[in-house]
C-alpha cells in the first residue's frame, strides 16, 4: 500500500507545480489590473447620479395625486477618484421641492403646477463632493397635480368566497365590526368610491357561525383610520317548506272582478331552521294583472308574479306560473 503512494508522488508534485504557476499568474494579473484601475481613475469622466424627489410645504388640505417624476438625474463631471467617493460615501438625501413656490400651467387640458429643477442648483451642489462639476439636471421641470384632501366614512364590504357544507346556509347578513371606516385622500378618488373591500379571503365548508379578523384592502393614495375588521358569517342548517299564498288581482275597475283557477299558488322556499316560526304566508305577495284580460287580444291565461318575499328565505319557487280566469261584473 505504501509503495503505491510512493509511486504517485512524482505525479502529485507536478500538479502542485502547475497550480503554483497558475497562482503566481493570477497574483500578477490582479496587481496589473489594480495598477491600471487606479491609473484610470486619474482621468476625467462624465456620468449620472439619480436622487429621489420629496415634495414639502404642501398647502393645507391638499394632496399630490400625480407627479411627472419621482427622481431627478444629475449629469456630473469629475476625475474617477471624486466620482468613486461620491458613489461610495456621498449621501443620497432626497431632493426637497417646496410646493408653496410652485407655478401653474395648463397641460393636456388639465391644470397642473410645476417647479423648475434649476432653482434647486444650490442645494444640489451641496450634495456633491468637492471637485465634482454639475453639468445638467433632468428633468428641467417637474409637474405635479394637486387635489383637495377630504375625509369620508365608507361601509366595509367582504371580498371573499364562502363555501358551505350541504344543508347549511348563511342565516342573515354578514356582520362587520366595525362596519365602516374613515377614508382620507384626494377628492376625485373618494367621489368614485362606494365602499372599502376587505383583503381577499376564503371560508371553506362552513357548518356553523364563524368569526375572523380580516385586513382591509389598501387603495392607492388613500389612508384608513383602521386596518382590520372582525367579520362574522352566520351559518345554520336549512330546510324546505311549501306554503299556499292567495292571489291578488290588480288593474281592474271597481265594476269588474276576476276569479282565477286556482285562486292561490304554492310557494316553496328554503330558510334557516330558526326562521320558520317567523315566516307567515302573508309575508308573500302574489299578483295577477287583471288589465291584461281587458285587452282585445286578451290571453287565455294570466301570468302570476311573486311581488314580495320575506327576508332570509332562499331558492324561492312557485307554481303555477299561469292561471286560468273568469271575468265577472260586480252587482
TrEMBL record:
Q: Which InterPro entries match?
A: c-di-AMP_regulator, YbbR
Domain of life from the UniProt record: Bacteria
Enumerate the UniProt keywords alphabetically: Membrane, Transmembrane, Transmembrane helix
Can you tell me where the transmembrane regions are? 21-38
Signal peptide extent: none
Q: Which named protein is this?
A: YbbR-like protein
Per the UniProt entry, what species is this protein from, by scientific name?
Alkalitalea saponilacus
Amino acid at each position: 500500500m505504501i509503495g503505491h503512494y510512493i509511486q504517485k508522488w512524482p505525479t502529485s508534485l507536478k500538479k502542485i507545480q502547475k497550480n503554483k504557476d497558475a497562482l503566481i499568474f493570477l497574483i500578477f494579473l490582479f496587481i496589473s489590473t489594480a495598477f491600471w484601475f487606479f491609473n484610470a481613475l486619474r482621468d476625467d469622466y462624465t456620468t449620472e447620479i439619480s436622487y429621489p424627489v420629496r415634495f414639502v410645504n404642501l398647502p393645507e388640505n391638499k394632496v399630490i395625486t400625480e407627479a411627472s417624476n419621482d427622481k431627478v438625474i444629475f449629469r456630473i463631471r469629475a476625475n474617477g477618484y471624486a466620482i468613486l467617493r461620491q458613489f461610495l460615501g456621498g449621501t443620497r438625501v432626497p431632493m426637497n421641492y417646496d410646493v408653496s413656490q410652485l407655478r401653474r400651467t395648463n397641460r393636456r387640458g388639465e391644470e397642473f403646477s410645476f417647479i423648475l429643477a434649476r432653482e434647486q442648483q444650490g442645494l444640489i451642489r451641496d450634495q456633491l463632493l468637492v471637485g465634482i462639476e454639475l453639468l445638467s439636471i433632468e428633468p428641467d421641470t417637474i409637474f405635479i397635480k394637486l387635489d383637495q384632501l377630504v375625509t369620508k366614512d365608507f361601509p366595509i364590504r367582504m371580498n371573499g368566497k364562502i363555501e358551505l357544507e350541504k344543508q347549511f346556509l348563511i342565516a342573515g347578513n354578514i356582520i362587520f365590526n366595525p362596519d365602516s371606516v374613515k377614508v382620507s385622500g384626494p377628492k376625485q378618488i373618494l367621489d368614485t368610491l362606494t365602499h372599502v373591500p376587505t383583503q381577499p379571503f376564503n371560508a371553506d365548508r362552513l357548518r356553523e357561525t364563524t368569526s375572523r379578523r380580516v385586513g382591509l384592502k389598501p387603495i392607492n393614495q388613500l389612508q384608513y383610520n383602521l386596518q382590520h375588521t372582525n367579520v362574522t358569517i352566520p351559518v345554520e342548517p336549512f330546510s324546505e317548506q311549501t306554503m299556499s299564498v292567495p292571489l291578488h288581482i290588480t288593474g281592474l275597475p271597481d265594476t269588474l272582478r276576476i276569479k282565477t283557477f286556482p285562486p292561490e299558488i304554492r310557494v316553496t322556499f328554503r330558510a334557516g331552521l330558526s326562521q320558520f316560526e317567523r315566516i307567515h304566508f302573508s309575508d308573500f305577495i302574489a299578483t295577477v294583472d287583471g288589465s291584461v284580460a281587458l285587452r282585445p287580444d286578451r290571453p287565455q291565461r294570466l301570468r302570476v308574479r311573486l311581488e314580495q318575499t320575506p327576508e332570509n328565505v332562499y331558492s324561492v319557487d312557485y307554481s303555477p306560473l299561469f292561471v286560468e280566469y273568469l271575468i265577472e261584473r260586480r252587482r
